[in-house]
Design a protein that fits this description.
This protein has one domain: Rossmann fold. The protein is α/β, with parallel strands linked by helices. The termini are far apart. Strands 3-2-1-4-5-7-6 form a 7-stranded mixed β-sheet, sandwiched between helices. About 35% of the residues lie in helices and about 25% in strands.
Length: about 200
């Protein structure tokens, strides 16, 4: 299997059977540790296109969680978009977090923080964030619902649409989020990227 095929297979398994994650996360973490030094050369200008559309028109959030932050591309973009917000970027890969900290401009350092964490067991209190974003990231439904504040938003984006190795179909996102109190679904496209936004009831 290619690394892309491994990521796709792990995503498919974990989305359906989240109890498998502890058995699979080590392999995915190690792979992203390997990719960390060259990660930003692998993503193009389209990476956040659909996410940007999904964020347009939202009231400025106070606290934002960037799940699967990688080298912090989305976190930096969010900090510039929302100049009053506090952003926390988390990733399972320690090397990704090290790169994110290295690449963070000094002027954003007071509002953006990065930490190693598992999205399946987040170290945050209930309803901690007004906005949660996931770019090419496996969702853990219970934790997403737990940390998103009532009235807050969650935005999923996939930089290559259905071709993204870590991709979750919109019907799956709608179904699983709907079961956990999310509604007001909206989909966005900035080819090849796609995004979905939902609001916590």
């Amino acid at each position: 299997m290619t690394p892309q095929q491994v990521a796709r297979r792990v995503t498919e398994l974990v989305v359906r059977r989240q109890w498998l994650w502890p058995l699979l996360r080590g392999r995915l973490r190690d792979r992203f540790d390997e990719l960390a030094p060259t990660w930003e050369t692998r993503i193009g200008p389209h990476h956040l296109g659909a996410m940007s559309l999904a964020l347009d028109g939202l009231r400025e959030p106070r606290r934002i969680l960037d799940l699967g932050t990688g080298t912090g591309v989305a976190a930096r973009d969010l900090a510039e978009r929302y100049p009053q917000a506090e952003i926390v970027g988390v990733d399972l890969s320690p090397r990704m977090i090290a790169e994110a900290e290295k690449l963070l401009p000094d002027e954003l350092g007071s509002r953006v923080a990065f930490q190693v964490a598992d999205a399946a067991r987040l170290p945050f209190a209930d309803a901690s964030f007004d906005l949660v974003v996931l770019a090419n990231m496996i969702p853990f439904w219970g934790e997403l619902a737990r940390v998103t504040a009532p009235g807050g938003h969650v935005v999923f984006s996939f930089s290559l649409g259905e071709e993204t190795p870590i991709h979750v179909p919109s019907e799956t996102l709608r179904r699983e989020l709907g079961r956990r109190g999310f509604a007001e679904f909206a989909e966005f496209s900035a080819p090849p990227a796609t995004a979905l936004r939902a609001t916590k009831g």
